[in-house]
Amino acid sequence: MLVSAREMLLKAHKEGYAVAQININNLEWTKLVLQVSEELKSPVILGVSEGAAKYMGGFRTVMAMVRELHDHFNITVPVAVHLDHGTYEGAKAALAAGFTSIMFDGSSLPFDENLAKTKEIVELCHSKGVSVEAEVGSIGGEEDGVVGTGELADLEESRQIAATGVDMFAAGIGNIHGPYPENWKGLDFDVLRDIQRVTGGIPLVLHGGTGIPGDMIQEAISLGVSKINVNTELQLAFAAATRKYIEEGKDLKSKGYDPRKLLKPGTEAAAQVVRDKFTLFGSVNKA
Prior knowledge:
Number of domains: 1
Shape: globular
Number of strands: 10
CATH architecture: Alpha-Beta Barrel
Strand content: 15-25%
């Protein structure tokens, strides 16, 4: 079922687990996430950055691919198609293309502008039954050319953004995109507790889910995190398995160069990461 992320996240928040947002980059990624979600009866959010959408041929192409694969594989679990770190213009374009969930990321804008544009996006999306995510305090690292230093979210700004009626809220609590450095200080759970309090208990979002230790993930979920984004870990697993396949010379044997064979080990490795994340986040059999 292609749905808004709202109900699946409210259920997760109430029952104490988290739904994974797995970013999709191509046909293989989309297939593996849908198939593992159905296999484990887990709700899922397909994350699509503006860069990934451009790579795949635009928002409409992404939605057409997801719809057709969803129907072809008889997917019965709740699936949301979510714009990740969307600009103001990108949010409107993804909404028009049929995305069922939108993140408007105004965290790099002056706060008043972020607030005003978030309000507008919420009104537009809610009029179509589409869920909205907003952000305060940029997430560290780089995502599609957007670089964040990882500052901690301001509580008053968090309160005001949450009051716009967003369905989920992302706040910087020391998390970063990409691999975590050895000297990473970890998540700031005191700030997370305060954010959940000032935002009125709405589902919170943890970006940069790759590399965060399992015990930190579990504590974050207990403090209101109901959506956790994972992307880099799948890419690393895919790349490692593909490298091994080629280094072993399998691409040179019996038509091993066929993309369907060449991409299979990486796809299977990425699928296992998704299984592991669903299990860690507690979403198995929650569809």
